Amino acid sequence: MTKAELKKVHVVEKILEGYMTNAEGAAVLGMTQRQVIRLKKNYQTGGAQKLAHGNRGRKPSHALADEIKERAVTLYKEKYHGSNNCHFAELLAEHESLHLSPASVRRMLLERGIKQAKQRRRAKAHQPRSRKTQAGMMWQIDATPFAWLEDRAPAFALHAAIDDATGIVVAAVFRPTECFEGYSRVMQQGIWNYGVPLGLYSDRHTIFRSPNETLTVEQELAGEVKPLSNFGKAMADLQIEHIKAITPQAKGRVERLWRTFQDRLVIELRLLGITTLEAANAALPPLLEKHNRKFAVCPRESQSAYLPLDPSLPLEHVFTKREYRQLGSGHTFSYKKTLYTLGKPTELRLSAKTTVEVRETLEGEVLLWMYGQAFTLQATDRPSRDPVLTPKEKAGSAQPRKPTKDHPWKTTYDNNITKRNTKQRSFQDAMYSQHNSYPEAFW
């Protein structure tokens, strides 16, 4: 019997012996007098054991069958290993039509000595930041390398962007490494599906910022602006405020997204039998929809802050690699060891040595960007020179040159001949006055 039940037995015995009244016993046990009278009758008919709970030692009618428990544990070991309790319960309901609560799953796994694959640790205290009030006010973007396909393929990086107000993953893409193309693909997908956000939160990777963006006081006084990376120039073209966080906690929304993806997305890709990066990208959109249905929240304000995309500004011409070249004669310039010229005759008239902007799209197309529009280019052949027909002449040996008489090598440090002759004559006159004749060394 429990301590509470032993206390009931003790109080009922005191009442039956006449040391306590029903009202006093009810006050001690926290019951009504009617309940105390019922306890007295049970004690008189069945003794102290009658006061114990009637279902003690009996299996509950709604208890899980042993066959179901064994089946769930076997499925976890063979198919769903590595998933947490909540995710495991969802997968059983989705794929096995076995509806169990996360608490039941946790209990049956602990009975077999199976603990969580990832132990939770106490999080550090950081000042929380409230979500934005409207969808589209700010996105958070980041990338993380991980073994998303476990041992079925090498590790690669997942690029993703999440809306701060709703928690919706607006876009994601797998790439071999963290790169400019991955972030550009994410931004393109998100803008096509939702619109242009007002702001973007990222880390301080050199993809997002130029290493020479810190200006000196003299440069600021001279009116120079901070240089931008290719990604920063794209954000400036789209009028997106780009904020670069100093600490990971500042963009905690996307940092916590990686913990969820590394816990759930790995299991989902395993169940789909994905073995390559290309197949993982193909299977990613429905998995993102499933994630958003479960974890997305409603914003505080229903009005959206997204801006429509300007139809005159194609995204494939915005997210590009940009460099500058000087035009040669015939509107030609060299880019990546290839000579380019204008592909179609246009009214564009540029003189030689004009500096132009060259853009290379994500698909590898090279464009000439002038006056806010793109001009197509075509590769041309370089003039070939046969080294046999036009041999290079080697420079001959230079003729020896004889220094002049007034060269510093032939004179003293004082190159003024008049002063030098005057000093020499004064010295000779002094020697003559002492010896009445010039010494033999002077002749």
TrEMBL record:
Residue numbers spanned by region Disordered: 382-432
A Pfam family recorded for this sequence: HTH_29
GO annotation, biological process: DNA integration
Gene3D superfamilies per the UniProt record, alphabetical: Ribonuclease H-like superfamily/Ribonuclease H
Residue ranges annotated for the Integrase catalytic domain, each copy included: 124-316
Single GO molecular function: nucleic acid binding
Composition skew (Polar residues), residue ranges: 412-432
Coiled coil residues, start to end: none
InterPro entries: Homeodomain-like_sf, Integrase_cat-core, ISNCY_transpos, RNaseH-like_sf, RNaseH_sf
PANTHER family xrefs: INTEGRASE PROTEIN, TRANSPOSASE RV3428C-RELATED
Protein name listed in UniProt: ISNCY family transposase
Organism: Paenibacillus roseus
